[in-house]
Design a protein that fits this description.
With about 375 residues, the protein is α/β, with parallel strands linked by helices. It has 2 domains: about 1-175 and about 355-369, Rossmann fold (3-Layer(aba) Sandwich), CATH 3.40.50.2000; about 195-350, Glycogen Phosphorylase B (Rossmann fold), CATH 3.40.50.2000. It is about 40% helix and about 20% strand. It is built from 13 helices and 15 strands. The chain has helices at about 15-30, 60-80, 105-110, 115-120, 125-135, 150-160, 210-220, 235-245, 260-265, 280-290, 320-330, 335-350, 355-369, and strands spanning about 1-5, 10, 35-40, 40, 50-55, 85, 95-100, 145-150, 170, 195-200, 225-230, 250-255, 270, 295, 310-315. The chain has a 7-stranded parallel sheet with strand order 5-3-1-6-7-8-9, with helices on both faces. A 6-stranded parallel sheet has the order 12-11-10-13-14-15, sandwiched between helices. Strand 8 (about 145-150), helix 6 (about 150-160) and strand 9 form a beta-alpha-beta unit. The longest helix is centred in the first third of the chain and has 17 residues, at about 60-80. The radius of gyration is 21 Å and the shape is globular. About 45% of the residues are buried. The model has no long low-confidence stretch (mean pLDDT about 95).
Amino acid sequence: MKIAVIRKECSFFRGGAERYCANLSRVLAERGHTVYVVAKECDPDIHPSVIHIPVKVNNLTSSSKNRSFHVNSQRALQELKVDKVYALSRSYPADAYRASDPLHINLMNIRYAGKIERFLQGLNPRHRTILALERGIFDPKRIKIVITNSRLTKSQILNVYPYPEERIHVIYNGVDLKKFSPGHKRQVNNKKVLRLLFVSQDFRRKGLIHLIEAIAILKGMSLPCLLQVVGSDNPSHYLKKAKRLGIDREIEFSGTSKSVEDYYREADLFVLPTQSDPFANVCLEAMACGLPVATTTNNGASEIIDEGETGYVLNESEPLPEQIVRVVKVFSAKTERKRDEMKKFARIRAEGLTILKNAEKTLELLALT
């Protein structure tokens, strides 16, 4: 089968959604399919049967970026003869759309709490463009089926858009169990200080500020932690915040990494207090490396966490910094044997969610469109 996959960036070395696109394309190609990746950027060595179809993007404004990628992707598709079109970015029409990006209408409600501010932001060309694309995506005449990576996202779509429920299918993310495995730690934790890890390209939405505030509280309680922050976002605002709180020595910003699995292996607990995530793949990657995860109910990945066994789920019952403090205190009080059990259970849970299983379920649905 010839399959066109639409995603603005397809790379093993970027965010979770970009890595998912690269992994899916590779597995589909390994199963004998010809895969056309319609993208602005694409890793050149994913698989010999993966063909990059370059898409030009107008980078003048955020609005033009999103609109031009959609328009030019559809133009590129007209030149291809494919059996199925699978959109991983906001572009239509397509046989299937994977809702891996947060619903923009929900993000606006989170970031702009006031009605007046939300109204004014709604006039912003960037937001208008993305919301228009989102409405187009969830038009049943333009997209035959929608695939979500969590029950959370499915319910969010049904709450906002008139898309038929029976055409929305949940398929959890898959992870590369070879690349993301427990392995061996490069460094020994001689000081026995709890090592926390945060991985994201969007520090604001993923709640880094809450984690920094929690680190300060923990230090005041004589429970010091070291926080490793991995991601390409600008750290200046968060560095200033850490210095004001007197914890700048407890936090290290490492920038982006092509070997993020090394950071998973060296940490004790992965913490992602995100505001909104359909399914943060970094949580699954961490679990595959045997790293327990703490994340919020706003993250679809929380659906695969068994409380106290593979990690912890943070809810809205109290402020996030206080919840993080509570979880860290509980985790730090565990014996080494109990922590090792959590690591083992985290890996076992991840082993049931592979890229291959994800691809097989996806192919089954595409065949029905």
